[in-house]
Amino acid sequence: IAGVGLAAGVIGPAIFAGVILMVVINTVIAPPALVGLFRSAAPGTRGPVGLAAPEREITFELPTMEMAEFFVAKLAPVFEEEGFFVHQISREHGLYQLRKDASVIDLAHQGAALRFSCRAGDAPVVQAAMYEGLAALERSVQALRKPLDARTIRTGLQQLDAGGPPELRMGDYLTERLIVPELTGTTKEAIIDELLDVLGRAGLLRDRAAAGEAVWDRERSMSTGLQYGVAIPHGKTDAVDRLVCCVGLKHAGVDFDAMDGEPSRIFILTLSPKSRPAPHLQFMSTVSRTLNTEGRRRILAAATARQILDVFAAPPVAAAPRPVPARLALADYVRPQTVRPHLHADTKEGVIQELIDLLAAQGLVKDPATACRAVIQREAQLSTGMEQGIAIPHGRTSAVDRLVCAVGVKREGVDFGAADGQPTRLFILVLTTEAGAEPYLQFVASVMGALSGPGRTRALEATTREELYAALTTPAE
């Protein structure tokens, strides 16, 4: 440009020489000078540029570092299918950043822990992604014929508080004809079939058989029965060309293999295309915010599809704070005749049968065989062996008319598939009716309170039936 100006007589030789000098300085002298000025012998470390002050920190502790690494590998495609850009910031330090529109989620892989930092509104997306990642991991482990104890990840997955404005508008996916105020099915299979029929009648399925197979493929890897009476069966299939859903209620409840063992009453069936992106996790995030305590109450109280739709379409309503319920009096459920300080059985099945026989001898169980099957089936889903040598095997059965309990001690310990891998010595067997009207969770909370610290020691040291009964029902001095 300077040469053209010189030839045209616009600039003189002196200005042209100055331009040439500046070009030489900028291209030859300046770069080496700047490198020398800012060079440092210290190694550089990259870090995520995320939220200045994250609103929510979510940590998942996995059994081993290798499992955490495997989990991260399963999480990346889950987020990518949602349209997130997954960026590995530092492999050495296990730092990742997930971005989509205004959503920024930081992930730090630290040993056996996965730590997420995000705004409160994105927390349900993280929870839903972890649940899907767990299912993918479970499928891989099943293929390798190696069992996976899913308790570590499943605990606390369902976050049903409002947590900010919904990501999606439910009105874009849900209409009155996609809502069934009272389902007729009484089994998990019947509920799923009935909901698929709803989508089929609405013309939203190109291939009903393929849609059903996608849902059952997901259920076989891990049940979608969550907590608090909510189940969200779902799957990915090209039988749909966009995300579709329907909602159904079953007030009497259905056994859906839920995480908390309670019957499921609210069902949201969701299908999203397999070969194209769809906001599946964001949709589940919106649903979970709607189904907080107040949302569930309003939905179960609704009498028509229109009323149910109004709840989903309205902004989430935070539930009013409720006082913590008082612990139940264990003496109302535990009898001296239903405790045994010296169990004879030395296997899981034997302990369950011995405690059920103890209840049957007092006329509290009408059909011991039926009751035993209910408890064994529950154990097949996920062992009730806990840490610190305690197990709470339980089940819902028509063999009892109310909540009943038997307690036994085996000082030598029994392999009960406990979370910490240690033998179990203290067993609390609980049977409740199929209707689930009794306060089972409140009862278990009372039992755990009685067996904390000194209570557990007293129970394990009891040598007579009276001493064991007192350890459960009488507070330590």
How would you describe this structure to a colleague?
The protein is of the alpha/beta class. The chain folds into 4 domains: 2-38, no CATH class; 56-154, TATA-Binding Protein (2-Layer Sandwich); 171-313, Mannitol-specific EII, Chain A (3-Layer(aba) Sandwich), CATH 3.40.930; 330-473, Mannitol-specific EII, Chain A. It has helices spanning 2-7, 13-38, 65-81, 123-143, 151-154, 188-201, 208-221, 280-290, 293-301, 305-313, 348-361, 368-381, 440-450, 454-461, 465-473; strands at 56-61, 85-90, 95-100, 103-110, 113-118, 179-180, 230-231, 234-236, 244-254, 264-272, 339-340, 390-391, 394-396, 404-414, 424-432. It has a 5-stranded antiparallel sheet with strand order 1-5-4-3-2, with helices on one face.
Mean pLDDT: 82
Assembly category: single chain
Write down how many β-strands occur, each being a DSSP E stretch of 2 or more residues: 15
- CATH class descriptor of the largest domain: Alpha Beta
SSE topology sketch:
Blueprint: H1 2-7, H2 13-38, E1 56-61, H3 65-81, E2 85-90, E3 95-100, E4 103-110, E5 113-118, H4 123-143, H5 151-154, E6 179-180, H6 188-201, H7 208-221, E7 230-231, E8 234-236, E9 244-254, E10 264-272, H8 280-290, H9 293-301, H10 305-313, E11 339-340, H11 348-361, H12 368-381, E12 390-391, E13 394-396, E14 404-414, E15 424-432, H13 440-450, H14 454-461, H15 465-473
Parallel strand pairs: 6-9, 7-10, 8-10, 11-14, 12-15, 13-15
Antiparallel strand pairs: 1-5, 2-3, 3-4, 4-5, 9-10, 14-15
Helix pairs in contact: 3-4, 4-8, 6-7, 9-10, 11-12, 14-15
